[in-house]
Design a protein that fits this description.
With about 375 residues, this protein is α+β, with helices and mostly antiparallel strands. Helix content is about 40%, strand content about 25%. The strands form three sheets. An eight-stranded mixed beta sheet has the order 7-8-9-10-6-2-1-11, with helices on both faces. Helix 2 crosses helix 10 and helix 12 (about 310-320) crosses helix 13. The longest helix has 20 residues, at about 1-20.
Amino acid sequence: GVAMLISHLARRAGSTVRHYASSPRSLRILVANSTNPFVNLGMENKLVQKLPEEDATHTLYLFRNEPTVVIGRLQNAWGECRLESMKEDGVHLVRRFTGGGAVYQDLGNSIFSFLDKPKEQNIDRNNRILINALSTFGVEAEAKGRNDLVVNEKKISGSAFRKGKDAMLHHGTLLVDLDTSKLGKYLTPNQKKLETKGIKSVAARVLNLKDEVPDLDHAKLCTALIESFQKEYDMEAEVINFDADVAEKDVEVAPFVTELMDDKWRFGKNPHFATKLETRFDWGVTEVHFESRQGVISDIQIYSDTLFPPMIEAAIEELKGASIASNGIVNAMEVVKAKMGDNPTVASQAGEFAAWLQKEVHSV
């Protein structure tokens, strides 16, 4: 009996040691049948919050949304899009939880999300998965900068990145057959952005993949992406499909859907403050609306398409009640810098913003 017990314990010890020595790699693939943007982004938020326990689960999530304008966490809905036209045409307004600018999406726009543990995320590898999938249709795409994929210098894909609780998200669009005529109908491009970029029209810089591959559609693209994903990791996985009713069925998706659909979250306050200042920094177009009483900022709202919202959110908090005289604004922004920890990029953005605002406020 003792011998058996010892061998049993040894086996158990061996198995635990083995388990820790090489954490199993696995793939997870989800494809939405739903085209409801609130449900699809709700699912994405669930995935960002919670990855499976195994260390190396790589997730690919594919979906597309019926006509929708998605705006960044800190943007002014009234300033970014033509809400009346959208309402008339039944186009959804969605405010995402992350920063960045406004985009128009429809069923001609396929969306991919890669989710990995932070130390496992590899953007080059993700781009390779996308590029290899496209090459199966004879399309030669290349990565340009950190965020874009181009074909013949025209943009077919734009990406954004987000750190969740224990996951890194790399998500982006692939233009299959987007109705580009709608961009001008629902989006009001910011003059400051256009002045600096000197761009005639968005449509001139983007390319629909259907122009290169006439019979391409979302389903074919999904199949190619799934195959490329499995090939890259040399593994296979069951594809999990879900419908719009996942919002009722999945208790972890439901709260995100409710939050995304909330009008207060989507529209925010439309400020009618006395003073409005606007500028473009390298890191984002930024608008400051404020009221002042007796030399103090009594109320303030800041909009921005920055990719790092926490700095602006902290600025809104600290600038309320700041004195306009002497260095009140700069001092408030020093508190913001401290709050953001010692991130040099954010510190320089906060410093730049403080110097600009201090100067502008004095010339109002």
